[in-house]
Amino acid sequence: MVDHRPFGRTGVRISPLTLGAMNFGQRGNPDHSDGIRIIHRALDEGITAIDTADVYSHGESEEIVGKALDGGRRDDVFLATKFHGQVGDNPQHRGNSRRWITQAVEHSLRRLRTDWIDLYQVHRPEPDTDFDETLGALTDLVRQGKVRYLGTSTFEPSAIVEGQWIAQRRGRERVVSEQPPYSILARGVEREVLPVAQRYGLAVLPWSPLAGGWLSGRYHAGLTAPISRRADRFPARFDPRVPANAAKLAAVDALAALADEAGLSLIHLAIAFVLEHPAVTSAIIGPRTLAHLESQLGAAKVTLSRDVLDQIDAIVAPGTTLNPADAGYQPPSLADPAHRRRGGSAQPAGVAS
After folding, report:
1. Where along the chain do its domains lie?
2. Thinking of the domain 5-340, which architecture would CATH place it in?
3. Per-residue model confidence as pLDDT tens digits over 177-227
4. CB 208 within 8 A of CB 238
5. Strands across the sheet with 203-204, in order?
6. Is 200 in the active site?
7. Host H or E run for residue 14
8. Which of 342, 349, 317, 7 shows the shortest CA–CA distance to 188?
9. pTM for the complete prediction?
C-alpha cells in the first residue's frame, strides 16, 4: 500500500511519486500505445498523480495522457498540467497573460479529455506580466470549475512570497504548490525555496530528481557521454568539457560508489534523497520507457540512513548546485546584462559613468 502524503494544506493526499509525462510524444517516446501502457502500469503500482504541460511535444503529451485516462481512470488521478511556453508556431500562443491563459486552458482540457484540471501551474515566471494579471485569470478558472488548485514551477522565493501576498491582499485564489528542480546535484532550492514553501504550507513537487539522467547510472567519468536529445538541446548542462559538468561527473562516481556500498541502485539513492526532505510532497519521475519506470518505482520504499545522508552531504554540500545551468530559470537580473548596467548597455572602454 502506497503511503500517500498531504498536498500542502489542501486536504488532498497524493503518492510520493508523480508520473511526469514530459517524455511522451515526439520529444521523447512517440509511440502513443507505449505511453499509455507506461501510464497504466504506474497507476496500477499506486501512483496517483500525473504531471504534464501543454508545451511537451506541443500538446502531444497531454493527448497521450488524455487517452490513457479515458474510459474510467480519470477520477482516481490527481492531474496536473502547465502553461507558459510557446505551443506551436504562433508567437501569441505563449505567456502568462489573461488572454493566453483563457485559451490555453481550453486547449489542455480538450487534449486531456477532461472537464477539470486538478492542478494548473505557471510553468515559468514572466517578469513583464503583472502576476496579479495571471492570478486574476487563474482565479476565474477555479471559480468556473475548470481548475481545482493553482501552482507555480521554478519560481524564485521572492516571487513565491509575492504570489501569496497578491492572493491575500487582492482576493485571488492562492498558489498551493511549487515545482522546483531538485536533485543531489542541484541542491540550490534548499537555501530558500524549500523553507519558503514550508513557511507558507505549499506542496512541493520536485522535477528532475535524477538530474536530467546524470543520476541514472549512464554517466561515468572517463567514458564517452551517452547520446541523447536532451544533451543536444542543452549542451551547457551535459557537455563533459564544461568544468561544472566535470564536477558533476566526479560527484556521480562518488555517489555510485556510495549507492553500491548501501546496497542500492543509484536511481533509488537519488530519488530517495529528494523524498527525504521534509518539504517535499512528491518527486516527479519522467520515464521514457517501461524499463525506465520499473527502475524507479521502488524508490518510494527506500529509507536512507543518517550515515548515508551525511556522506551525500560530503559529496555535494547542502544548498549547492554544481552547474548553475541546472537551476532551470535565470531571472533577468542575471540573464540580461542590461539589468546590471546603468543606462542598459556597456560603456566604451575608458569612459566614466
Report:
1. 5-340
2. Alpha-Beta Barrel (3.20)
3. 999 999 999 999 999 999 999 999 999 999 999 999 999 998 876 555 565
4. no
5. 203-204, 175-179, 147-153, 117-122, 78-83, 49-51, 17-20, 283-285
6. no
7. strand 13-14
8. 317
9. 0.93
